């Protein structure tokens, strides 16, 4: 049976071993049934460079590589937590890095894939921050710093982000409906799959003058979340680790 799977927002880190173990089981089980696996960002809680010797990173890379070597290609779109994940990790894991917005055609459906943070346009403070940290010169400068300094900077940024988000309304941190429509229409697509908001749902809307659908993946906090696309259906599926 033809199946393509999508996941996002695992936020893997050494402090959450249950999620890492659940992901390993997913890679060794459900993912093996797929034609392809797409990871739509925030696979890791933080990423300060491909040279970070964290053993969890190598463990996950080798597990993904094993999936790829079994015949299931894996594609990755950067999230807001792991936007610095680079070519070195991609080579080790066998993943193909995709641009921040990617159109794929699956079983007759034209689908737009993205992480989802660019749709949250009401959060102007975050969008300004995002624009700044995605400047190539700043990324090169950061990656040239010693690893221990990068760790301190990343920890400070995460603390600042947590404090900032605690004072924001849930509505501000969700997608802007018009941004969703504008993005679909710019790509002339009727299907969108993204993560980031941690609000799993399949939303019906109208774009390009026709019915459209926005499929939102859940985060892997206490259970897994995936979207399964087949010739017959598009399903949002929660599952136990």
UniProtKB/TrEMBL annotation:
PANTHER family membership: UDP-2,3-DIACYLGLUCOSAMINE HYDROLASE, UDP-2,3-DIACYLGLUCOSAMINE HYDROLASE-RELATED
Sequence ranges assigned to domain Calcineurin-like phosphoesterase in this UniProt record: 5-200
SUPFAM superfamilies: Metallo-dependent phosphatases
Keyword field: Cell inner membrane, Cell membrane, Hydrolase, Lipid A biosynthesis, Lipid biosynthesis, Lipid metabolism, Manganese, Membrane, Metal-binding
Similarity-based family: Belongs to the LpxH family.
Organism encoding this protein: Buttiauxella warmboldiae
Name of the protein this chain belongs to: UDP-2,3-diacylglucosamine hydrolase
Protein EC: 3.6.1.54
Highest rank taxon of the organism: Bacteria
Note on cofactor: Binds 2 Mn(2+) ions per subunit in a binuclear metal center.
InterPro entries attached to this UniProt entry: Calcineurin-like_PHP, LpxH-like, Metallo-depent_PP-like, UDP-diacylglucosamine_Hdrlase
Gene assigned in the entry: lpxH
